Amino acid sequence: MDVTGSLSLPVAVTMLVLAAALIGVVGTRLAGVVDELADKTGIGEALAGAVLMGAATSLAGLAVSVVAALDGNPSLAVSNSVGGIAAQTAFIVVADLAYRRANLEHAAASLGNVFNSLLLLTMLAIVVLGASAPDVTVVGISPVTVLLVFGYGYGTVLVRRVEQEPMWNPTMTSETRQDSPDPESSTSSLGGLSTRFVVFALLTVAAGYLVARAGLSIVAELGISGTVVGTFATSIATSLPELVTSVAAVRAGALTLAVGGIVGGNAFDLLFIAAADVAYRPGSVYTALTQADVFVVGWAMLLVGILGAGLVRRQPRGIGFEGVAVLVVYLGGLLTVTQLPGT
User: Fold this and answer.
1) Is residue 222's pLDDT more than 50?
2) HSE-up of 301 (CA within 13 Å, CB side)?
3) Which of 188, 190, 243, 310 has the highest CB neighbour number within 10 Å of its CB?
4) How big is the chain by its Cα radius of gyration, in Å?
5) Beta-carbon neighbour count of residue 291 at 10 Å?
6) DSSP states of 58-117
7) Nearest to residue 17, comparing CAs of 182, 233, 225, 228?
8) Which CATH number fits domain 9-168+190-337: 3.40.50.1370, 3.30.1360.70, 1.20.1420.30, 3.40.50.150?
9) Mean model confidence pLDDT for the chain
10) What's the confidence (pLDDT) of residue 301?
């Protein structure tokens, strides 16, 4: 069903740019609020980045995927989610460039971030399995969606557990920045911080709806696939908060938060697909995926695997081999998507 109404191409492009700008501006404020909340509540930067910042900065993308699914465009819904994961993984390299003192993965050593990378790979694998599984649904929802949501929930519990009771710890070096909560670092009350957090989150949802309208209109006006628009346009536009907040967090010295906001937030981004499956009424969103959509999922898995290796390897200086590899694979994937059948 049409839930948006088509816009002319100039209006759609203008709306996309303005909504992306709004997302970027809000994103500049979120990093500081989440960092203060992490200190006030004592939950730690890795978990705060994964859950609070990851969820808040992902709400715009969630709106895009749900609206696209309601509109009957599963490719846009899924590629917006997974394309955002690919873009945000590349953004870590940008944040790394902003931290010139040492390699960011080295300095932001965190078992929670390593575990979140493994969780993300597991959830991406579930999506691939769903794409090749029989088209079985219960009240219009695939069992894969239940597994995806359960995996995220249980994985988040495990992240907290491995941080509280680690079976191994990264080697501390002179460049390692440890997460040391300081509840007195902020003059704002917990209630005030929470209110600001909610306001910024609602603004990202509103901007996400505008991005969705623009993206669906671009698909209709240009006659290109939702996979291309999702990978190149909506996913990057809705991922701007992750870029802005990560660079802001690095400059503020909250390195674990910078990496955790992207790595953990990426796991939350995969829940867009679960929400899209609920919103997509013709059947399972997974079995509606095209060859190009499955390629995007595999591409994201490769990028996350490289990043995970970098978090374990922890090269001391520069962006490291994994940083260069992430950029090459990301750009190569963008070029490949445009050459796939059906795009």
Assistant:
1) yes
2) 14
3) 310
4) 19
5) 12
6) HHHHHHHHHHHHHTT-HHHHHHHHHHHHHHHHHHHHHHHHH-TTS-HHHHT--HHHHHHH
7) 233
8) 1.20.1420.30
9) 81
10) 94
